[in-house]
Specification:
Blueprint: E1 4-5, E2 22-24, H1 39-48, E3 50-60, E4 71-79, E5 92-94, E6 99-102, E7 107-113, E8 116-121, E9 133-141, E10 155-156, E11 164-165, E12 172-173, E13 180-181, H2 191-194, H3 208-217, E14 234-243, E15 248-253, H4 261-267, E16 274-280, E17 290-295, E18 298-303, H5 306-321, E19 325-333, E20 339-345, H6 353-365, E21 370-377, E22 380-381, H7 390-393, H8 428-440, E23 444-451, H9 456-471, H10 475-480, H11 508-527, E24 534-538, H12 550-559, H13 566-580, E25 584-588, H14 589-592, E26 604-608, H15 616-625, E27 629-632, H16 635-638, H17 662-667, E28 702-707, H18 715-722, H19 725-734, H20 759-786, E29 797-801, E30 804-808, E31 816-820, E32 826-827, E33 832-833, E34 838-842, E35 854-856
Parallel strand pairs: 15-16, 16-18, 20-21, 20-28, 21-23, 23-24, 24-25, 25-26, 26-27, 27-28
Antiparallel strand pairs: 1-6, 2-5, 3-4, 4-9, 6-9, 7-8, 10-11, 12-13, 14-19, 17-18, 17-19, 21-22, 29-30, 30-33, 31-32, 31-34, 34-35
Pfam family, one: CHB_HEX
Enzyme class: hydrolase
GO cellular component, one term: membrane
């Protein structure tokens, strides 16, 4: 008889339901009988308790407990050398999907909120006996395909004592690779039981042999790459080269130095050496476009605007990265899209100013020009707002405080203390510095605070503010910015399993709060010298809210808007207020689609995140047809929090894609979305069909890559997930390849049987990829090394055939090394005779970091 069976929950397979599996120990209900734990006893238990987590089987279709769809079988294990009493302590853990049942009557499991659960000994239990291992089987909804879903920093707590992190659950960092490991997670080794989401899933792990075969299918040729990344629109080669080893002397004609300072620094201005002239073009060039000419006399860059001149200087910097001499040539270049964006989530797990500044410089280097900075979500509020101190005092910290008087619940393995790197916020001065640094690189910062859903941090912070002001006798002030309604009896379960994360849109105080935040953020932009142009409200995922709200019942009666449609009402009203301030409202396509286009401002931005195989084309065509600016953000290709490979030891969520590597991003065709059905498979590696009901006609305004941070806790992990994949994204954002097909006018359908993407086009694509990969491996990764970027070192593809080790990489040029039977590392220079199991890995371009090791061959 299971000790806990959880009620059925709404499940939308297209989005993750919560933020990974982690354990935490927190305050339990009062105990009776056993002597309460003392602080020294709790401290010792935290030092000694061994916690384990194992996935036993994915793709289970029966015996899953309550809830829809399949599940997986997992196991928690606890070993306390000195035991733990039968009550007075509790175990809290979080989970990607709902934990549906626990198959151990000795323990009780309760869902707290979001990704936080509580495990306690069941009444009558003997607690944890000294040295005994307790294996607690359970069923988790969906699947659990990654060793990086569990969260670290589980902690022990007891009433009246200071909570302590359990030492066995702290993450470890390999000093050679810099990669994080979670030692309490059991190895993922049984491919047959663990690799698939469902019995019909055809996905297989990217083993070294499969990776070797995939790399060999598209060989790369050293030295055959484009002159720079992203590739220029037109290059005319000259003869000879110009030696720039002596530096550059710059003359500006028609441009201010302050508008080009970072680009001039990147290009290598020294005040001596060859002449470089940057001047206004004699004829109009496209926004962001430039001309660059290099001959024996020097370098000339022409542009019609400062962004174009900066882009030309960045191209010169990239040419110089290949060596002290640059080829004589002429380039005419302009961007494919005016909007070339990167979304960076610092709300779920915080990442500081230094990381953002480093990312901005790399965005400029690869000609991206929009930073969508996600500053507010359920798990955190990350920007100081004048007059609302609780937003950061409460909303920017997660700690052991179940009442949430001092901080938010400890989601995502944040731990009990509230002072770890994953907690924090940007001061007003920090944000102004970020906006100024972006503007100097011709990058627009688009701030994002998700509303009305995904707003728990703000809601809880404003509840705390109201308590403070009520205690001071200021009832009017307490109500001014409230985001919740005390009388609301709505029962709902958000995508990440919060039951209180949606702003009540039927109170005037909600709109006062939005106005206050927008006005304060806009003031920061003014102080930074770069007025706020676009504000992203999120607007997505508000299932079931407001159904039990008296305020919403009254508003519905007054306005005639059904309660279930009030999300659209909120979007329309906030968008109108933004337009009054000269600010464009932006949001995710699903939420923006709830608004009545006739009631929206003329200028609207919608991020098209609908899945390629789930209606993206139709949604994009419809919203573009409404006159909205549509930015392609489809998850299968542009979500860089997806794993780099189908490998349980690659970090990231896989609800949107089992893998997204550089090659997949290079192959992406943002203006030919339905044609991907001819070359890609669905989430379970099966052929799919897409119909483009809108046909041709609507044009998209841009493309944006997304990095969500639920599983990303450090700055190095951010860089690992972004690079080098962001280079392939930048290639497609900047330049439309000649091989990209145009969708047929009849709208399809498209699938493996159609040939819109011709065999000749595929050959041309593969040839371009070979050159692109060669450029990345031989030049661009060295540039990233020099910039201190902790990019992902590719996993080596390898086989042992007839006693001979053969190895290759997705990108050529990096050093490879191997070792046999515990011996020393040996450089791999080509096929090598070996015996037994062989460990093999690549190194960074500068040789200073090692990549992840894989093993091939048979153990003896």
């Amino acid at each position: 008889m299971p000790s806990a069976v959880f009620p059925s929950q709404r499940h939308w397979p297209g989005r993750p339901l919560s933020a990974g599996l982690s354990l935490a120990l927190a305050l339990a209900a009062g105990s009776a009988g056993a002597a309460p734990l003392t602080q020294p006893e709790l401290d010792r238990a935290a030092r000694e308790l061994k916690v384990g987590f194992a996935v036993l089987e994915n793709g289970v279709t029966g015996d899953c407990g309550s809830g829809e769809g399949g599940c997986y079988r997992g196991e928690l294990s606890l070993t306390a050398p000195h035991g733990l009493p039968p009550d007075g302590w509790a175990l809290f853990f979080s989970h990607v999907e709902r934990m549906r049942r626990v198959d151990d009557p000795r323990f009780r499991v309760e869902h707290v909120n979001g990704d936080l659960y509580r495990l306690t000994p069941a009444p009558g239990s003997a607690g944890l006996k000294p040295g005994e291992t307790y294996r607690i089987g359970f069923r988790g909804g969906g699947s659990h395909l990654s060793a990086y879903y569990p969260m670290p920093n589980h902690y022990l707590a007891a009433e009246g004592l200071k909570a302590r992190v359990i030492e066995s659950t702290r993450p470890i960092v390999d000093p050679e690779t810099g990669l994080e490991g979670l030692p309490f997670v059991a190895p993922f080794v049984d491919e047959a039981k663990l690799e698939r989401r469902s019995p019909g899933d055809r996905t297989v792990w990217a083993t070294p042999a499969r990776t070797y075969a995939a790399n060999a299918a598209t060989p790369t040729a050293l030295g055959a790459g484009p002159p720079v990344i992203p590739s220029p629109r037109e290059v005319r080669a000259g003869t000879g080269a110009l030696d720039l080893s002596g530096g550059l002397v710059v003359r500006l004609e028609g441009f201010d130095r302050k508008d080009l300072a970072p680009a001039l620094a990147a290009a290598g201005e020294t005040g001596r050496g060859a002449p470089l002239v940057v001047r206004r073009a004699s004829k109009p060039l496209p926004l962001g476009g430039y001309g660059l000419a290099i001959d024996a006399e020097g370098v000339v860059i022409e542009a019609s605007d400062a962004e174009g001149a900066s882009n030309g200087l960045r191209t010169l910097a990239a040419l110089r990265a290949a060596g002290p001499t640059v080829p004589q040539l002429a380039i005419e270049d302009a961007p494919r899209f005016g909007f070339r964006g990167l979304h960076l989530d610092v709300a779920r797990n915080f990442h500081g100013k230094a990381l953002v500044l480093a990312v901005l410089e790399q965005m400029a280097a690869y000609k991206l020009n929009r930073l969508h900075l996600h500053l507010g979500d359920d798990e955190g509020w990350r920007l100081e707002i004048a007059g609302l101190p609780e937003l950061t005092e409460i909303g920017a910290r997660r700690c052991h405080d179940l009442a949430e008087d001092r901080c938010l619940l400890p989601q995502l393995g944040a731990g009990p203390d509230g002072d770890t790197p994953v907690d924090g916020f940007y001061s007003a001065a920090d944000y102004i510095e970020i906006v100024r640094a972006a503007a100097a690189r011709h990058i627009e910062v688009i701030p994002s605070f998700d509303m009305p859903g995904h707003s728990r941090a703000a809601i809880r912070a404003m509840d705390a503010r109201a308590r403070r002001l009520r205690a001071a006798g200021d009832e009017a002030g307490a109500a001014r910015y409230l985001l919740s309604e005390a009388a609301d009896r709505s029962v709902y379960d958000s995508i990440q399993h919060y039951r209180d994360n949606t702003i009540n849109v039927c109170q005037e105080s909600a709109y006062a709060f939005v106005a206050k935040v927008v006005d304060e953020v806009a003031a920061l932009h003014v102080r930074a010298g770069r007025p706020l142009k676009t504000y992203h409200i999120g607007a997505d995922e508000t299932p079931g809210a407001w159904i039990g709200s008296p305020a919403c019942a009254a508003l519905s009666k007054t306005t005639g808007v059904p309660v279930k449609k009030l999300g659209g009402y909120f979007i329309e009203r906030v968008s109108a207020r933004l337009a009054e301030r000269g600010i464009v409202a932006a949001g995710w396509s699903d939420g923006m689609g709830d608004a009545d286009a006739r009631k929206m401002p003329a200028a609207v931005q919608s991020n098209l995140w609908a899945p390629l195989f789930g209606g993206a084309t139709a949604v994009g065509r419809k919203q573009a047809g409404q006159g909205w600016r549509v930015v392609v953000s489809v998850p299968e290709a542009t979500y860089l929090d997806a794993p780099n490979a189908v490998d349980p030891y690659e970090r990231g969520y896989d609800w949107m894609s089992r893998f997204t590597d550089s090659r997949k991003l290079f192959d992406f065709m943002p203006e030919s979305l339905p044609v991907h059905a001819e070359i890609w498979t669905d989430l379970e590696n099966r052929p799919a069909t897409v119909t483009d009901n809108g046909g041709r006609g609507a044009r998209f305004d841009g493309v944006q890559a997304q990095l969500w941070s639920e599983t990303i806790r450090s700055d190095d992990q951010v860089e690992y997930m972004l690079f080098p994949r962001l280079l392939a994204f930048a290639e497609r954002a900047w330049r439309r390849a000649d091989w990209e097909p145009t969708p047929a006018s009849d709208g399809g359908p498209y699938g493996p049987q159609t040939q819109t993407f011709s065999a000749a086009a595929r050959v041309a694509r593969d040839r371009e990829w070979a050159g692109f990969a060669a450029r990345v491996g031989t030049v661009e990764l060295r540039r990233l090394d020099q910039a201190g970027i902790a990019y992902r070192i590719p996993i080596v593809g390898a086989v042992v055939e007839s006693g001979v080790l053969k190895a290759n990489l997705e990108v050529p040029g990096l050093p490879i090394e191997y070792r046999v039977a515990g011996g020393g590392w040996v450089p791999y220079a080509g096929p090598a005779p070996v015996e037994g199991a062989v460990e093999i890995r690549a190194r960074s371009a500068d040789g200073r970091r090692a990549g992840r090791t894989v093993t091939v061959g048979e153990r003896r």
